Amino acid sequence: VNRLLGIETEYGLYVEGRGVADQVLEAVGLLRCCPFPAVKERWDYRLEDPRRDMRGFRVEHLSVDPQDAQIEREHPISLSEREARCDHVLTSGARLYNDHAHPEYATPECRRLMDLLAYDKAGEQILLSCARAYQEKIGATVKLYKNNTDYHGSSYGTHESYLLRREVPFDTLASTMTPFLTTRLIYAGAGKVGVEVNPNPRTPYQISQRADFYMDTMNVETLYRRPIFNTRDEPHARMRDYRRLHVICGDANMSEYATALKVGTTALVLDLLEDGWAIDLFIVDPVRAAQSISRDPDGKWLVETDAGVMNAIDLQRRYLQAAQQRFAGRDAETDWTLREWETVLNLLETDPELLGDRIDWIAKRQLLSLFAESEGVALDDPAMIALDLAYHDIDPLEGLYYALVEQGRMQTLVSPEAVQHAVEHPPADTRAAIRGLCVQRYPKQVESINWERIILRNDEQSVRLDLSQLTGDLRDLNRRLTAATDITEFVNLLQSPRRASEPHKEELR
Amino acid sequence: VPTEPLTRPGGDGDGPSKPDVKRPDTNELLKRMRRVDPEQARRYRQRSGE
Questions:
Q1: Alpha-carbon gap: B23 to the closest alpha carbon of chain A (Å)
Q2: pLDDT digits over A193-206, tens only?
Q3: Chain A contact for B12, CB < 8 A?
Q4: How far apart are alpha carbons A109 and A257 in whole angstroms?
Q5: Phi-psi region of A243 (alpha: psi -120 to 50; beta: other; left: phi over 0)
Q6: What distance in Å separates the CA atoms of residue A210 and residue A230, rounded to the nearest whole number?
Q7: pTM of the prediction?
Q8: In this complex, how many residue pairs, one in chain A and one in chain B, have their CB atoms less than 8 Å apart?
Q9: Subunit contact B1:A115, Cβ cutoff 8 A
Q10: Residues facing A155 on adjacent strands
Q11: Which of A194, A367, A390, A147 has the alpha carbon at shortest distance from B35?
Q12: Which helix (H) or strand (E) element contains residue A322?
């Protein structure tokens, strides 16, 4: 996978005896218990602009959930914006903070699926350590769930980021990604008991956690009126060269395999776009199509396109076949993705239950069915929602996904050692290593920090390190930076004339 | 950080294995599921996020 990738996850937070009005304070309390070294409360928001739209305009304001706005009005908190955000940048280059009352972990930028999986799982371990420390401090049960809903109509996100070349025209990007993202949930869905929006009692179980909350095909929103294709134009890299595909419609996957397949296939579709390929059809009503697929797990997943009615599996095959023709044999991760994509689509068509060891919505449904049969309860019994939630409990001693892992019933792709390493060490080949080194070695000198810029204090001067062009393989540069003996040498390596003017050949794709 | 790329469908062995939810050792799974507090989902309320 030759592009920068990342996953940011807002975790669900339960603190015994506390309610939604307390959730910001609880999230901050939990984050303040982070036991890992970090640069705190110095995130640089000046380069962020979430209202900028890829379609060439900037919206006046972003929509907010009316119920959530009411909670905020009725229960103001006494923290400053900086205190409430509680930003941490970790030695791995990852970001940990409070986003809208949810502890959020954003992986460092990765270039490989295996790395991304390790950092995604490392996020669970980091947050579990925070939760255990906070629980001990306050003497009440603290639980974290890696999911996207409270089953009462509130959703929170798991977003993916993919850097791509800006030369891909916006219209082509949107028209090719939208049918792909609309149908991707057949293997990327995490499964959910019930329906939260326009409930249908005949739908006890659906494929996706998030589909209920889609309200629009395309827009810049994330908090309300959530779209399938998000148009936020915030590349976190040099604007004139790059876009960032900000995927907000996905579910939080517990399964490593599902995460790898979801990200690997999406990255391949972006490769196709950069190679000049585009899909030649569109889905007539993507929101309705996604919700219809999600709410009919045993259905035929038919979608209406301008070229006629089509099965979601066959629509996915159009992307798969184009990718196979162009990229087969390119590298091991590409071949893994192509092979597993084909296998999964075939099994979804012929015998989906065989995917119960790797696809979350199927694994969860098998687990719930086992319980329903054993205890003589229906799949839509309210107790099933508690089991659904427990699937996403990140505590390996309590969570149901981890019960499956413990029994060898789920395919895992990264070793516990790799995950442990990822808790405190950055990827070797991306700009995240520069951020991580600053946090590890020069925490007191960091004046501000974000994805693309770090300002360090050195010799009574503020030195700006511009990472916005460092999007390629930085293995060699990172080795030299790691070997630097002091901050002056470190800064000089990043500010040499070659570095300051344009990226070196090795750092480009 | 792992340096070897993915070369197999995942996990050990030659490929995906068929899961069987009716295997005898489902007792442990059921035990874990019975420990889940059925009231937890009712109590679980969240602020809306992104």
A1: 11
A2: 999 988 766 789 99
A3: no
A4: 19
A5: beta
A6: 14
A7: 0.94
A8: 177
A9: yes
A10: A149
A11: A390
A12: helix A312-327
